[in-house]
Amino acid sequence: MHRDVFKAIADPTRREIINLIAHKSMNLNAVADNFDMSRPAVSKHIKILTECGLLVIKQQGRERFCQADLQQLKEVTDWAEQYRRFWSQKLDALGDFLNKDQEESTNIKHKNKKL
Fold first, then answer.
1. Could you tell me which residues come within 8 angstroms of residue 54 by beta carbon, excluding any fewer than 6 positions away?
2. pTM summary value
3. What pLDDT, in 10s, does the model give residues 14-49?
């Protein structure tokens, strides 16, 4: 089953798991130790992250380690980029408007001083 990456990152616990594992590979117990919930509950979150491709579980001896595979987050980045561009354009236009308005105000003040 392949899950939607947006649903996976919608949950704060899963985002925190990603954050933990993004920095270093951790075994399942080490991940669970960071949360105030049962190990089965953490395992469910890990399963969802694995199903959407954000985590990979690797067996090393008797332990299972979680490793981040953050390529799927590119989908989120691409989606958010369109809105970043939109708001950048709007804010640039606002800046241009405010600069023009300030220049006009300055010109009016100078004209009034001369009168």
1. 5, 8, 9, 18, 68, 69, 70, 72, 73
2. 0.71
3. 999 999 999 899 999 999 999 999 999 999 999 999
Question: Residues 49, 68: contact at Cβ < 8 Å?
Answer: no
Residues 43 and 19 in one domain: yes
Please name which of 25, 111, 5, 113 lies closest in space to residue 68, comparing C-alpha atoms.
25
Closest Cα to residue 76, out of 18, 2, 8? Answer: 8
Range of the domain at 63: 5-68
Q: Which residues sit opposite 58 in a β-bridge?
A: 65
- Answer yes or no: do 11 and 51 share one domain: yes
- Cα Rg of the chain (Å, integer): 25
CA-CA distance, 98 to 61, in Å (whole number)?
Answer: 64
CB 9 within 8 A of CB 18: yes
Phi, psi of 68 (to 5 degrees): -80, 140
> Sheet of 55-60: strands edge to edge?
26-27, 63-68, 55-60
Strand locations in 34-76 (E): 55-60, 63-68
